[in-house]
Design a protein that fits this description.
Distance between the termini: 112 Å
Number of strands: 28
Strand content: 35-45%
Helix content: under 10%
Structural class: mainly beta
Radius of gyration: 33 Å
């Protein structure tokens, strides 16, 4: 009798119930822990722990100290301003419930590959018992092999299909596959080192230097070029000040040679960066993980006197053109007489 009175006093109501383990709950399904050894429910794990956004699965939610409560249970997924509920079924270890329909789920924010939702288990007309985080990801948001297979999610890359996927059986049939570093299971090609790609230039620098106004053949090393890629047409694409220029390219052994083209820019800046990509199969760029790019520069915009000109970094190959009294590369000094062009080992006239 005294314990019943204590229940009513601590729960503050006239209606209460008792769990099988001796804990009590009130009409609002709130816990009234009357004994020191009573503990609230705790979600210990969820299987699977994350899910491709475009799919639906039944989740197994493992809950410690889950009460034997009458009525129905729900799973609630809260993310990006939406709360979506699905019916939960009690199991011997907690509950199971399906994820919401994919057309009801929020869209993944632009520039992201996932969103994290709050996953809570609750009684149909009561508060949350316990909550945890649950992540929805989308392999389709990755546009390159390197980013795809380096993902923290189980994503794989279809080489010929040129797409990232969570389901290779469905989307990579008869294709060469590069598996993600977080894909469980054996693989002969796993991780970004197996992606078809452009490699850094000799010396490890991702920078290709060209003096503005000069014609140049750009050449780069490539790796993991499958036979079906070799049989396609290659194109080098340069984006200079927002203007895209494409030239044909040839693959000889492990090197791509872009057809000769003139590199120039219109601004008065000392240099500009032109992005660079190699396209195969009409629209599929090779990966460029080292961000190899072309730096187009003008010696005369960097400095305006002979002393400073001859002190510039030797990588620019600038020298002092005595005819025009400007800093130039030798090809732009105007005449073939090299005596009129001073290199950095020479001395400026007094």
């Amino acid at each position: 009798v005294s314990e019943t009175c204590e229940v009513k006093e601590q729960c503050g109501i006239s209606e209460q119930g008792e769990f099988e383990d001796g804990r009590f709950w009130n009409k609002d399904l709130e816990f009234c822990d009357l004994k020191e050894n009573m503990t609230s429910p705790t979600i210990t794990s969820v299987t699977p722990a994350e899910l491709q956004r475009t799919t639906a699965r039944t989740l197994q939610i493992f809950i410690d100290n889950f009460p034997s409560l009458p009525g129905k249970f729900l799973c609630a997924f809260s993310a990006l301003g939406k709360v979506l509920k699905t019916i939960a079924t009690r199991t011997s270890t907690g509950v199971s419930c399906t994820t919401p329909r994919k057309d009801f789920l929020p869209l993944i924010p632009s520039g992201k590959s996932y969103f994290t939702s709050k996953l809570s288990v609750k009684a149909e007309n009561g508060p949350d018992f316990e909550a945890t985080n649950f992540t929805f990801f989308d392999c389709n948001t990755y546009s390159s092999c390197t980013t795809c297979v380096s993902s923290v999610f189980p994503c794989d890359w279809c080489v010929d299909g040129h797409r990232c996927t969570h389901d290779t059986a469905e989307n990579c049939r008869n294709d060469i596959l590069v598996t993600g570093i977080n894909r469980i299971g054996p693989s002969i090609r796993s991780g970004p080192a197996f992606c078809p790609r452009v490699n850094a230039t000799t010396g490890g620098s991702p920078e290709i230097l060209v003096s503005s106004g000069l014609q140049k053949i750009i050449q780069v090393k490539v790796d993991h070029i499958a036979q079906f890629i070799i049989q396609t047409r290659f194109v080098c694409q340069f984006n200079i000040e927002g203007r895209v220029t494409s030239v044909n390219a040839q693959l000889l052994r492990d090197t791509i040679y872009c057809d000769e083209m003139e590199f120039t820019y219109s601004s008065r800046a000392p240099n500009i960066t032109a992005t660079f990509s190699i396209i195969w199969g009409q629209s599929k760029p090779l990966d460029n993980p080292d961000n190899i790019h072309v730096l187009i520069y003008r010696c005369k915009e960097m400095v305006n006197n002979c002393g400073m000109c001859l002190s510039l970094d030797e990588k620019y190959q600038c020298g002092w053109c005595q005819v025009s009294e400007t800093c130039e590369v030798t090809e732009q000094c105007g005449i073939s007489d090299h005596k009129s062009w001073l290199n950095p080992d020479q001395t400026c006239p007094t």
